[in-house]
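User: Please fill in residues for this 271-position structure.
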């Protein structure tokens, strides 16, 4: 899953300024091996004020429409294992934005709100889009002190049980759900590392696991480097995730991630 940021406030400094440039970047990521493009119109960080629904829609909708019209015309993959045409993941959480954008062509809703109600799940059910459930605490874009958990893995297991049931009751088929443990969201350093180490516990839900590995703050805490210098740490997290059965990796540097997955997968015998 290649990350495509449409806003300059992105922590990694890799945002694109307009739809034409965004499509060019998406095309490049697909050529590098991306199966999914994850497009976001607003950073999840709390260092910038939240934008209005109308503003976020104005960033996302033109790209989603163009991607739907042009994505199938991207250069076909050279690797038979690559998903093509590429899937489009829409990274948003406000229901008004979801209702306006997802019907225009999103294959997956990457919802970082932790599904406080079933509203976004209902939109997914109506449009046929898959739904990514990410663990988080509290409303996005609002600063929350880092939470401490007596047992972070037990917390994740209870969370996914509840939210899977909520999504299914709203009409989303279980096979249309993807799980994300939310590394870096309302979690302390040791809890983030523990999730990497004990990811297998989440296989009990028999759903694909997305591992958000790319340039995460926990990598910066380990290495003491800025986001742009965390690709080597990202590679290490990808290898760890492969060993523990993660199926989707959300990354900025698609080429490095694809080469890591192919090489490590061949060595480990898991790809």
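Assistant: Residues filled in for all 271 positions:
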């Amino acid at each position: 899953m290649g990350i495509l940021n449409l806003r300059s406030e992105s922590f990694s400094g890799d945002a694109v300024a307009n739809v034409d440039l965004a499509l060019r970047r998406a095309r490049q990521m697909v050529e590098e091996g991306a199966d999914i493009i994850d497009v976001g119109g607003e950073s999840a960080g709390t260092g910038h004020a939240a934008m209005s629904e109308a503003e976020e829609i104005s960033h996302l909708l033109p790209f989603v429409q163009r991607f739907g019209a042009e994505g199938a015309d991207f250069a076909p993959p050279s690797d038979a294992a690559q998903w093509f045409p590429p899937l489009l993941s829409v990274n948003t959480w406000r229901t008004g934005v979801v209702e306006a954008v997802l019907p225009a062509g999103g294959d997956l809703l990457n919802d970082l709100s932790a599904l406080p109600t079933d509203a976004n799940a209902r939109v997914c059910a109506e449009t046929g889009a898959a739904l990514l459930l990410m663990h988080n605490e509290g409303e996005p874009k609002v600063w929350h002190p880092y939470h401490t958990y007596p047992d972070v893995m037990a917390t994740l297991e209870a969370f996914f049980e509840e939210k899977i049931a909520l999504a299914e009751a709203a009409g989303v088929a279980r096979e249309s759900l993807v799980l994300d443990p939310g590394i870096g969201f309302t979690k302390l350093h040791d809890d983030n590392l523990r999730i990497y180490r004990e990811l297998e516990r989440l296989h009990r839900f028999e759903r694909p696991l997305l591992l958000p590995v790319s340039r995460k703050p926990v990598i910066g805490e380990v290495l003491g480097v800025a986001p742009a210098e965390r690709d080597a740490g990202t590679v290490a997290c990808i290898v760890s995730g492969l060993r523990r059965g993660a199926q989707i990796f959300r990354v900025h540097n698609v080429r490095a991630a694809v080469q890591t997955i192919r090489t490590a997968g061949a060595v480990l015998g898991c790809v």
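For context: The chain has nine helices and eight strands.
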